Amino acid sequence: MSASSRRSAPPRSRRGSTRRPAAGRSGRGAATGRRRFFDYPRSTVTGFRRWLPSWRVVLGTLLGLVFVGLGAAVAAYATLKVPSPSAQVKFQTSTVYFANNADGSRGPVMGTFADQKRDIVDYSTLPSYVGKAVVASEDQTFYQNAGVDPKGIARALWNNLRGNAQQGASTLTEQYVKTYYKNRTTTNYIGKAEEAMLAIKIGRTESKDQILGRYLNTIYLGRDSYGIQAAAQSYFGVDAKDLTVSQAALLAGIIPSPNNWDPANAPDKAKARWNRVLDYMVKGGFLSQADRDKQEFPQTVQYKQSNAMAGTNGYLLQMVLDELQTSMNLSVGDIKTGGYTIITTIDPAVQNEAVRSANDLYSGALTKGATPNPRTRLAIASVNQADGSIVALYGGADYLKDQRNTATYDAIQAGSTFKPFTLIAALQQGIGLKTTFNGATPQVIPGWDTPDHKVTNFGNEQFGRIDLITATAHSVNTVYAQLNLKVGPAKSADVATQAGVTTPPPVVGSNVLGSGDVHPLDMAAAYSTIAAQGVKHTPFIVREVLDPTGKTVSKGGSAGQQVFAADVTADATYAMQHVVTDNGATGHQWISPLNIPVAGKTGTSTDNKSAWFDGFTTSLTTAVAMSQIGEDNKSQETITAFGGIKQVTGGDWPAKVWADYMKPVLAMPQWTPKSDFPQPAWVGNKPTATPTTAPTDTATPTTAPTTQAPTTVQVPGGLVGHTEADASGALQNAGLSPVIVTAASDTVPSGRVISAAPGSGATVPAGSSVTLTVSTGPAAPPPTTPAPVPSTSATAGGPAPAKTP
């Protein structure tokens, strides 16, 4: 009984567990009665509401996301590093200046080199209203905010979410981050968030003035101008430190769209922006209303698209660029971004005259209306022989149209301008100026490098026995051909190279007649070596380079090197003066009227493919060269004659250009000759070796050349009756100079000496001239037939043959 009654009673622990689960409850939690951690779907409601999260879940989720976001932002801010400034913000324009040779100061601007036209200025040098105008226009809370504007961000976000036109909320600091550090514009929200955090971080580490100053030096303001200084120059032609309130307001107003709001493009919009900035300046307390009322819309300067390489200056600028790379080890990138001040050697007053003379030749103003062939090329190069500095250079009319510099690139035949090198070689070997040679034409000269060994003078002009002074003045080919073979063509080539010719001269007899090609600037440099009494300087165009702080980083030029003895160059100079002073000499017509001592040489190549006048005073050396390029734009062809002459020679238009150009230049105080040429030394008693002294820093030798006191010699005996060659050789061996005259003789055979004056045994100073009268044979008998009646076609006083080699 008892057993059955225990079985029928349920255990205590199970009492109350027989309740049915509530309707709709299911799952393990319901079965067990335990509450789930995340009650979803919701167990307390039925129907579709089971799938809707409760407000507690929504709120908790949102708060969780906020805290996670804040945590992520804090972590991102803590780990975010301020990047290095963009390399481009440090780019500065390098400016090239002319020289001011009148007083040694820096001259006007020649041009610029830039990747971005920018000149960085110290913010402290700017008027305070320049920065405040920008603040008023771009970020009126700049001085109060921490780098970002929360209200502005919220306003822009709400506007954008509503689908309205996109708005930004960038503070001035955020714009600074984009331009100075990032150098790019970000459109996505993640990028903008990064910029905002950088703005906050930078706002804590950089002062407001530092931010504003860097911003002003970085931003693009139109007209190819980066930064406030370049913009001030482009819009108003003033430095940023001299901007007025009105000008500063205009620049600040166009910052968002400078090209579209440039007053030259949209004057109404520009003025509206200008008014806006002034009103905001008043509102921000940066400008009084009274001062606001006084402002007038500023006038801007006309903007021309910059192209520094245009015109004649382009050739000079390219030479500067080349020299900075080759001689001063600056890369093109360094030059275009380094903000260097580059002072050249080019005197703007002299350069203007060179360009004027060239333009006058091409326009016909110099030739009574006659103009040259369009393919005729002109080069002008002037060098200061005291140091090798290039004072002026004409390389062409427009570098953008033709990048070949006629003064440095063109290689044309030197013509007779090469003869002074042979003269110097002769003087070095003791062959003096009074040495005579046969000047007849034509002559067959053994060893001459033509099949027939024949040499002719220009215009077939005949000369008798003449000395080297006359041969130089009249550029007598037959004399110089003999002289070159006597001294050796290799020696003439060596002298040309030592003087400054960089193209290797041919080692043949005809090199004395200028068969080799040379650059016009080289010839100016080589003649300047003669002008400097034998001191050679390598020509250069960059005088000094300064970095943005004003520190000199490089200087141009080099020490001079004495390559020829001063007595040799004195004699060469003396002979070259006769090119100008002697009546009928090749340079007399145009150069002599200057009434200034000039030494020089004309030159005309075979077939008139080149024509030169190279000359110097004691202050300046100038080479003028003309040539003509073929229709293939490569070959050299005969210069087309113009202006009433049959052929263009060195004594014609090159000499006239030289005189026209140099006349006003030599009147300038800085280039007026201050001294005369040295007196001739009359070398020739013995060879004068090329000195091996150490280089000097000036064109004048540190010690005056020493000359031997004149000695006396006796005129050799046995001259009468000997051949002209034997008698001349005997005189030269005795240190005397033979002068040959001819006369008929019935008793002395032709070609032999009739008499000598002074006579044999006479004591005379060394180097004196001795006149040898040479027989031409018996005098011709008088005519036995009547003289013919002159032809009516004969014309008295006909034109003399041209004497311009």
List the helices and strands and how they pair.
Blueprint: H1 2-8, H2 27-32, H3 55-79, E1 94-100, E2 105-113, H4 128-138, H5 150-161, H6 172-182, H7 189-205, H8 208-218, H9 228-236, H10 245-253, H11 258-261, H12 267-283, H13 289-294, H14 313-326, H15 332-337, E3 341-344, H16 348-363, E4 376-384, E5 389-394, E6 412-413, H17 419-428, E7 436-438, E8 443-444, E9 454-455, E10 465-467, H18 468-473, H19 477-487, H20 489-499, E11 517-518, H21 520-531, E12 535-536, E13 542-546, E14 552-555, E15 561-562, H22 566-581, H23 588-591, E16 599-604, E17 610-616, E18 621-628, H24 653-665, E19 712-714, H25 724-733, E20 737-743, E21 753-757, E22 763-765, E23 769-775
Q: Give the CATH class of the domain at 118-294.
A: Mainly Alpha
Which regions have little confidence, pLDDT < 50, spanning 5+ residues? 1-32, 690-710, 783-804
End-to-end separation in angstroms reads: 161 Å
Strand order of the largest sheet: 2-1-3-13-14
Helical content stands at 25-40%
Number of strands: 23
Strand content: 5-15%
Major sheet details: 5 strands, mixed
Q: Average the pLDDT over all residues and give the rounded result.
A: 83
**Overall 3D shape:** elongated
CATH architecture classification name of the domain at 118-294: Orthogonal Bundle
Number of helices: 25
Assigned CATH superfamily of the domain at 118-294? Biosynthetic peptidoglycan transglycosylase-like
Structural class: alpha+beta
CATH-assigned fold name of the domain at 118-294: Penicillin binding protein transpeptidase fold
Radius of gyration: 45 Å
